[in-house]
Amino acid sequence: MAPQPGARPEEPYTPETAPRPGGPSGPGGPGGRGGGGGGGGGGAGGGRPWWRSAPRVAIIAAVVVAAVIITIVLTRPSGTTSEVFAEPAASTGPNPVTKSSANESTPTTSATPKQSSGSNSEFSGATPGLYGGTENSASCDVEKQISYLTGAPAKNKAFAGVVGVTPGDVPRYLRSLTPVQLAYDTRVTNHGYKDGKTTEFQSVLQAGTAVMVDAYGVPRVRCKCGNPLTEPKALQGNVKTVGTKWPGYRSSNVVVVKPAKSKIKEFTLRNPKTGTWFKRPQGTTGTSDSPTSPPSETPSGPSSSQPPPNESPSSGETSSGTTGSPGTSTGETTGQPPGTTGGSNTTGGTPSSTGGETGPGGGTTGGETPSEGVQGGGTGTPGSGGAPGGGGGTPPSS
């Protein structure tokens, strides 16, 4: 039957167009009982708010608690304790690599370095007055040290591995070093020898200790025990000084030696017994020493800030509770130690004097002003090899 003119065509029946139960939508019939949206409310927004869902709230709470716990664990202070082994100048120490090659390793009064904002002060190996000695006399017998090592192939190989040369190159390496005495209590990484391998521990060497330094002014051999030395490493957490401390020892006065920016031509040294100053060419053993005037600047400030001559402390006293190994604390706890220092290159560079390093253009810079100390994330006290005379145990094996 044809539709009437003006009438709307019928829409085909589909589920979408099917009437919903509950009567027609719209304003509703009498009494309002069949209308009002017609039906069961399955549209969007019909569920309960998420915060009223117990499982969801429990999951979110667990995530928050876990995040708080992780934050506390990662940010709370570490319970780690680092040990620094105090080593008097005259002691051989534990686990020596060789017998002593020191001609002179008597304790001297450590000058007080310029203080930095950190735990310790760092100075370039080229700084005048950082080292001392006696004119025309080497603090170490280099040839004796060579004979000790070449006569013990296993130790020679271990020594070579620490300093970064081949075993056959050890004699040449040692002859390239300069024998001096420390003018300040100095921290280094010390390497002993035990059970056929090297050991490693952080140590403070007393002022007056005989050492050999490389062309950049970094201590490389402790002559009293033949132990190779490397730059100190960063100390973690609280720092305890163990071993044998000496009169006047203060962890805050310990220094760290940084490699000079270029090879050193001459070291400017001070004789602690006479107070006189002299120069020693790098790689020589005292035969080419020459007098010089006091430098304008030292690690302590003006040369007049150096301790009076002939002041020599005793070789060391065993602190209470330090007769055991480096694991035994002296009871002294310092704060965060200084950061580790980087390794030095043993080659290259333009020769320069400790009184003035040669700049990139070959001109003298007029001397390197000692730094007032650079903190590298907590440096401890500078170190040495070996153990204190009569009072130290054996340092930890690596």
Give the SSE string: HEEEHHHEEEEEEEEEEEEEE
Q: Please count the helical segments.
A: 4
Choose one word for the global shape: elongated
- From the alpha carbons, calculate the radius of gyration and give it in angstroms: 37 Å
User: Ranges with pLDDT <50 over ≥5 residues?
Assistant: 34-44, 317-398
Number of strands: 17
Give me the secondary-structure category.
alpha+beta
What's the short story on this structure?
The chain contains 4 helices and 17 strands.
Report on the architecture of this protein.
- This protein has 398 residues and is of the alpha+beta class.
- The chain has a domain at 81-353.
- The protein is 12% helix and 20% strand.
- The chain is built from four helices and 17 strands.
- The chain has helices at residues 54-75, 142-150, 153-163, 170-175; strands spanning 81-87, 121-124, 131-132, 178-182, 186-194, 197-205, 210-213, 219-222, 227-230, 238-245, 255-258, 264-270, 277-281, 290-291, 317-318, 333-334, 352-353.
- The strands form three sheets. Strands 1, 3, 4, 5, 6, 7, 8, 9, 10, 15 and 16 form an eleven-stranded mixed beta sheet that branches. The chain has a four-stranded mixed beta sheet with strand order 14-13-12-17, with no helix packed on it. A two-stranded parallel sheet has the order 2-11.
- A hairpin with an 8-residue loop joins strand 13 and strand 14 (290-291).
- The longest helix has 22 residues, at 54-75.
- The radius of gyration is 37 Å and the shape is elongated.
- The protein starts with 53 loop residues before the first helix and ends in a 45-residue tail after the last strand.
- Residues 34-44 and 317-398 have low confidence and may be disordered.
